[in-house]
TrEMBL record, chain A:
<dbReference type="GO" id="GO:0007399">
    <property type="term" value="P:nervous system development"/>
</dbReference>
<dbReference type="InterPro" id="IPR009079">
    <property type="entry name" value="4_helix_cytokine-like_core"/>
</dbReference>
<keyword id="KW-0339">Growth factor</keyword>
<dbReference type="GO" id="GO:0008083">
    <property type="term" value="F:growth factor activity"/>
</dbReference>
<keyword id="KW-0732">Signal</keyword>
<dbReference type="GO" id="GO:0043524">
    <property type="term" value="P:negative regulation of neuron apoptotic process"/>
</dbReference>
<dbReference type="InterPro" id="IPR000151">
    <property type="entry name" value="Ciliary_neurotrophic_fac_CNTF"/>
</dbReference>
<keyword id="KW-0202">Cytokine</keyword>
<dbReference type="InterPro" id="IPR001581">
    <property type="entry name" value="Leukemia_IF/oncostatin"/>
</dbReference>
TrEMBL record, chain B:
<feature type="transmembrane region" description="Helical">
    <location>
        <begin position="638"/>
        <end position="659"/>
    </location>
</feature>
<keyword id="KW-0325">Glycoprotein</keyword>
<dbReference type="InterPro" id="IPR003961">
    <property type="entry name" value="FN3_dom"/>
</dbReference>
<keyword id="KW-0393">Immunoglobulin domain</keyword>
<keyword id="KW-0732">Signal</keyword>
<dbReference type="Pfam" id="PF06328">
    <property type="entry name" value="Lep_receptor_Ig"/>
</dbReference>
<dbReference type="InterPro" id="IPR003529">
    <property type="entry name" value="Hematopoietin_rcpt_Gp130_CS"/>
</dbReference>
<keyword id="KW-1133">Transmembrane helix</keyword>
<feature type="signal peptide">
    <location>
        <begin position="1"/>
        <end position="20"/>
    </location>
</feature>
Amino acid sequence: MNGHVKNMHFQQFMETAATLLSLLLLMTVDSTKTVALSTNQQCGNLLQQTLKITRIVHKESGDLIKTYKAAQGEMSELFCKVSVNDIPDPNISGLDPPARIASIYTHLQAFLPHFKRVYKQQTDLQSPGSPLLKELTRVWGRTESLASFMNTFYQSLFPNLPIPEPAGGPTTLPPAQNVFQQKVYGCVVLKTYKDFMSNVSKELRNLKSKVCTKRTPINAF
Amino acid sequence: MVSAAVLHLWVLAWLASVLAAEDDYHLVIAPQSPVVQIGSNLTAICMINNTTEVTADDLYWKLSEIIPKEHYIKINSSALNVTVTIRSEKSEWLFCSCKTESHYVVLNRGKFTHGIWLRKGYRPEKPKNLSCIAVQESDTISSNIKCQWEAVGHQTEAVPTNYTLFIRQTGDKIYTASILGPVNKTTVDLNLFPHHMELEIWVVAQNELGKEESEHLIKLANCFVKTKPPSVAVISEAVFPTSLVMSWNSSIDKSYLETIYEIRFCPLGSQKWFYVPLADTSRYIQSFRLQNLQPDTVYVTQVRCKYNNNNKHCGYWSDWSSNVTERTPEDLPKSKPDVWIITSEEGLNKRQIEFICKDPEFSNGRIRRFNIMIEKQKDSIRNGTWEIIPVNRSLTDGSSSKKQITPLKTITLDDEESVTVYVTAINSVGASPQAKLIISRKTREPPAVEKTEVQSHNGQLFLSWKPPNRTVSEYVVEWVSDGERNWQRENGKTNYTAIKGDLKQFVQYRISVYPIYGKLVGKPVLERAYFEQGVPSQGPIVNLSGDPGCYTAKLEWDEIPLIKRRGFITNYTIYYRSGTETRGITVPANTTSYILTSLSRNTKYDIWIKASTIRGSVNGSNHSFTTLKYAPGEIEGIVVGVSLGFLFVVLMTMLLCFCKKDVIKDNFWPQIPNPGDSTIGNWSPDYPLKAEAPRENCLSGISVLNVDVCDAKCVFEEDKASLPLKKDKYLSEEHSSGIGGSSCMSSPRQSVSDSDEGGDMADTTASTIQYSSVVASSGYKGQNPSSLPQQSIFSRSESTQPLLDCEENHDTMVQEGSRQCFLRQPCFTHNAGNENATDSNDFNPLEMEQQEVLDFCPLEEDTEHTAPADCQSDDWIPAPVSSYMPQLGGYRPQ
């Protein structure tokens, strides 16, 4: 009797628990759906913002090259056709969106020391009020801002994935250069950066359809 | 209660730390130099330290004045609490003092007083209405964001509020800018404007009394952007005469921000803008086509832009772009030209009619020419031919809001003729519809309107009229001034209109209303009016008409020229001034001359004329004149009058003399009896008459003066000069009886002068001779003194008649023998008591009377010297009884 009673009580408890669990599950699913929706919207906004900022940087980098060439004097067109080592690759690496976004971020970080060096070199070559220096500063700052924004974007999309730092430690800079080498170096850096930004723009347009529209389990990565 | 206990504990703890440092002071206040909120209560405690001289009962508090004891709370014997409400904003001292006057306290007064400086202020309030803006510099947006807010509440100098602006950028990068004091705006430099990133902006107001934070402004950075306006270009396309295409370049690259646009346009010269609906331009576009415009019209266009945040309106509109004007292409004229006439008389029974024309209201292009055809109504068929009137007008003339008037043709028309005129206007695209006007016979002109009235009201000139009885299709209101002519057409059903022309102030307009019956022009009615009257700019110039008179002057002046009249003259006032007195006479406006009367003669007058309108008056130029002293002819009149008077007097005198000649003769030339007629000669028979014969004629003019008393007296009074003569004669008779022998003796006067001028006697006798004779009544009185006195008659003649030859000869003859006698001067005196008076006793009474008047002087003295010697000369011939020979010859008055 007691065992039956206990069994009965247990059965009733289990039914109640099952009901509650079902209800809880239902609420959880619904909540997940809402979160997914809001996350998608946020993703889209972030991605859109990132894309717009990238366009700005792309546009400003294009303007910067024109200004740079104009500031270097004769044969400036040839400077950019020379290959220089230790310049970040303009291509984005990685197979999946997180990797490619991380690649963008690391590339942006990798370009910053080069901007710093080019700025330093051009400070010696240009007058203090030179438009080149202003634009260089602007692109440099914009790159930092984009990198920061990309980090935020990455973390918002992939909160559980740490963003990788540039492989191989700090960026390697070329050794001391003469003026011609400096000019060639600066032009190559800027041109490479412009190409990179072009690639980033394309990448982000592609990511928009891959990252923010699919109801991808966010924690799967 | 808990808070009070905490406060006490805090105060005691603080005191414990302070008392050690302030051993020298026996009174200590806590808290030290507090910041207090105005309106709140301040509680302070005063502690007695290291003395037993005073207790808490001896303490008192003083702010600006001693605080009443009701505010005190005695904590213990060595501590006194006070609570006061802080009301004023001014910072001040709060003192705790001791009122005990013991020796120690008096000697250490400084140790028994302690004060704290109260800094007063307000707690900051939450800033409101925070707004920020970032403007475009060159081709990018400035990194500086300017923000401003509304600072709520008060703050004092002692406790200022510090405002800090915070801008947080995506990535938790925060930029700040702080500003102290009552300032409500600041600028934050973001180094690089964060396009497409979200910004969170807020302001924190903080002072020593608290801290408040404004609401956070969270927007995309682009929502704070105010860009430069785009640069606009407008083009027209010939195939679309009602359309213009606008294109522009955004002032900032699309990568920074996408903009939406707003467009507005208006015809050149118009102040009313037409806005393109935002729905058509709220997207990133760079061109727009304006439609439904007027052909051949210059339009002004403008564009502005603003950040496009997916149609969520945020950000600031840029300023409007600068004006861009473009003319729409030409099109066919869509309305008739406005043809009109100017009629003037041309000789007898003829009219001169000039056809003039305005461009069609919708000319849709520059009118290149007009075609006109004039038909005379004599024939029923069209007998006119089209004439081309080219229009030479620049492009700018056509763009003017005022329609140009083109003279088409002038014809001379008989009063009995009527014509119909057809006009079309042609632009570069084609011809307009045809306008028609009929000029009727003058004798059969349709009736005019009635009762016109012009009023200026609210800056417009209104014209009203009473329509004629016939149906009017339209009215033409024409106004003319200073050669400028314009007209407007009004509906035939109206009787009231405002003149739409650009009327000028102070200009007289001749306004005519023409009723148009069908196309037939009716009789006009003319009104004169001013849009606005003013004071004449020039006064009338007054002049004298002719010369001024003594009391009048005629003034003349010309009407003020129309252009300077500036209003209807209501009247003229003539002022004339002499000295300090000024008089004025007001005359009607139609007067141009006036005669001033009641002037003073020989007075200078200044005259001027004041012309008045309803708006005021103006004085004309001064003119001076002087009235005449004598009126013309006055002097001549006086001269003539005086002359006539003189002539009258002369005539009257002459007449009087003529009429009274006898009296005058008697008075002035008394008639002396002709001695010739005297009977003396005859009467004295003793006297030889042989000598008379040759002298008879000479004696004819001698008158005999019967001297009686009266006559003697008269003679004496009337002609005293003659008296010496008489006396002389008498004396001569008495002393020179020899004279009697000289019938032509000179006058007694001459005899007198002879004594003085004996040498001139010959000349004197040649001029005048007075004839006198003393006739002794008793014959000759001999020189014998003993002889009896005899009465004698003094006869005299003073004739100035020249002596007759016989007389002269006789004189000459006599002079030779009796010259000495003539030179003898008898002297007589008018002295009755003369020594010789005894001799006069021999005269008869009558002679006695005469003797009293004319008493002869014996002149003894003289005679002693001269006369006796002479008279008693050897030549002396005793005279007969008659003392004188009668003088012959006529009498001539002196």
